[in-house]
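During the practical work, I selected for study one protein's amino acid sequence and its backbone structure tokens, as given directly below:
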Amino acid sequence: MSIPVDVADLNTALADFGAGYLLTVSPGGRVKAVTVEPRITDGRLVVTGPGRGSVANVGANTLVTVLFPPLAQRGYTLLVDGEASVDGDDVLVVPSGAVLHRPAAHSDGPGPPAPATGSASGSSCGHDCGPVS
């Protein structure tokens, strides 16, 4: 489930999460995950110095995901999909969508952070998830 995100809402959502993981894919198809703490500048997630492997992966495949795990047990994960570019040692991600997600088995956990517009339970999602918009 990928819903377009207003950058102002994404910035608010990021305040409810700690460090995340930049997920890139190598030319050979292997996923690489590195810990990141991006900030939003000019409508993009700026990932400072994720490392040579991640930068090389973005050079080969610009589609990335930034995953922010929940801070609270059984809480929501924030997933941000986007198109990345390389700027020196940094990676810039233009978000194309974001979703708050957790499995239905975790529905007894804390509610979604403030920017969520609702729950998609009962939809084709099959999990307890809600768009950030």
